Amino acid sequence: MRRAISTTLVFGLVIVGGIAAAPINTDTALPVHKGEILWREQIRFMQASDSVSKMRVTAVPSVFVFGVTEKLALIGMAPFLDKELAMDGIERRSSGLGDTTLLGRYQVFQSDRPGETRRAQVLAGVKLPTGDNEKRDAFGILPRPLQPGSGSVDGMIATVFTVQRLKWQADFDVAYRKNGEHDGFRFGSSVTHNAALQYRLWPGELPEHGIPDYVYGVLELNGVWAYRDELQGTTIRDSGGYTLFVSPGVQYVTKRWIAEASVQLPLVRNLNGAQPEPDYTVAAGFRIQY
After folding, report:
1. CB within 8 A of 209, min separation 6: which ones?
2. What is the CATH number of the domain that holds 191?
3. Fewer CB atoms inside 10 A, N or C side of the chain?
4. Burial class of 68 by CB neighbour count within 10 A (0 to 12, 13 to 18, 19+)
5. Cβ neighbours of residue 138 under 8 Å, at least 6 residues apart?
């Protein structure tokens, strides 16, 4: 193989608070009520390519959220990953459980008035190396981006702000992830920023009585800026950079569950050196509240 692939395809940890309009690839500051459990299941298919290589990742992140109080929630996420790299006529592949993320989320601001609520939350947590990072095939040990796990302990912190009105909702988040080192290698730390608008398409007017089902249109901007990877303290030239996606989607919302689908298309692909560039991401899933 002519060169190593250092690109890491990133999928964000997206948590929804409550069963209401909510973004698909952006976090929200709406709460999960005390004692409630929220289960979110998704399948995400991502592809990145260049003139000599193509990488595909299918991720199935399972997310559980528990409302400890009206302001505090605990979050756990574990993904199943299937990764495939085709380069120089050779295909290499791995699959298995990825690394587990544990987070705490706390509401720091709330302002309510008729027909509108505004919320802000902070999140902090850690990613634990539960995924295998030593998988091999007939050609030897797999490149690091093909491994289900990174082998490192990573820390993360984020802020989220939401404005919700009767017919629309806007969400904004910024997150920083500090990646640890494992066996002399460190994936580049990253900053993500997201903005989302959800608009109720149906029904046009709310009924006087009862809670109907809803259909929402979703439009998001999802950006990630990654530092270069490091090997034995030396930065890897062909790694890191900035990518911005536009992400249209649709949701069907009921009192207790949501079905949703979205596609992410790159607007900006400003990567460092020679590495596969993101082509698209397709996501579909559901959320259930207990």
Report:
1. none
2. 2.40.160.40
3. C
4. middle
5. none
For residue 26, being part of any structural domain is answered with no
Residue in the structure block whose two tokens are 């990646």: 179
The total of structural domains in the chain comes to 1
Domain membership flag for residue 101: yes
The two tokens of residue 134 are: 């030593």
pLDDT at residue 83 in the model: 97
**168 lies in a domain?**
yes
CA distance 109 to 179: 29
Structure token digits, residue 45: 């298919």
Per-residue pLDDT reduced to its tens digit, 197-226: 999 999 988 777 777 899 999 999 999 999
- Residues 6+ positions from 94 with CB-CB distance below 8 Å: 81, 82, 83, 132, 135, 137, 142, 146, 147, 148
Structure tokens of 142?
A: 């797999």
What does the pLDDT look like over 246-276, one tens digit per residue?
A: 999 999 999 899 999 999 999 999 999 999 9
- Could you tell me if residue 27 is inside a domain? no
Q: Are strands 90-97 and 72-87 parallel, antiparallel or unpaired?
A: antiparallel
| Residue span of the structural domain in which 275 resides | 37-285
Buried b (16+ CB within 10 A) or exposed e, 80-116: bbebbbebeeeebebebebbbbebebebeeeeeeeee
Phi, psi (degrees; rounded to nearest 5) at 202: -155, 135
The list of the chain residues with pLDDT below 70 reads: 1-21
CA distances from 102 to 10, 115, 182 (A): 17, 34, 19
Whole-number Å distance between alpha carbons of 55 and 45: 11
Q: What is the pLDDT of residue 3?
A: 46
Copy the structure tokens of residue 98.
Answer: 């990825």
Would you say the pTM of this structure is higher than 0.70? yes
pLDDT in tens, 142-156: 999 999 999 999 999
Under DSSP, is residue 7 helix (H, G, I), strand (E, B) or coil? coil
